[in-house]
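Protein fold
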Amino acid sequence: MTAALAALPALPAAAAVVLAGGRMRRRPVQRQPVGAQEPGSPSRRAVVTLAAAVLVGTAAIVGAATAVALAALALLGRIARRRRERRRLQRERDAAFPDLVDLFRIAAAAGNPVHRCVEVVAARAPAPARPPLAAILARTRRGVPLAEALDAAGADLGSSGPVLADALRAALRTGAPLGPVLDQVVAVARDRRTRSAQAAAGRLPVSMLFPLVCCVLPAFGLLAVAPLLAGSLGSLAP
């Protein structure tokens, strides 16, 4: 009885501890709302922004590379087109060179000096050779000696143009007859034109190989072989 009376003063403190523990257990747990990010994790908006920036940068790089590639292709195409034009013009001048020399022979046989031969031939020359001869006459009108004008424009008359320019300069310097020299020049020019024509004829079968394989043979198969196969398969059907 004495021990029970001694424990009575400690009852309020124990009751306070029990009540406090009950309040702690009954305290509602704060739940994290759905969609909230944990501390330290990147937000969804930042990820989307980063992905968009990467896509825009990639598109810009690809667009710049495409533009550079197109510009390079355009430049290469222009260079190739100019080269083809120069080769075509050179072939035309080489083909017309024997006729040009024949005109110089006729003018020289008529007794014209070299200056007059150039003037007469320039008005009647084949179309590919007219611009170089006109350039020679324009230089002489500006006071350039005819020998220098011939030397500057000799290569523009064709592959054998320097030979003709040398013959004209030699006749202009020495006064020698122009006809015999031009006979040799025209013989060489005609031989070169004949060999060029033979080479072009030799390349013709190779150039015709592509249309033969890609056009003629498929057309023959469609018009001749396909109807026979279709008729054979139709006769085999039950």
User: Anything to note?
Assistant: Residues 90-197 form a domain with the Receptor-associated Protein fold (CATH 1.20.81). The CA atoms of residues 6 and 15 lie 16 Å apart.
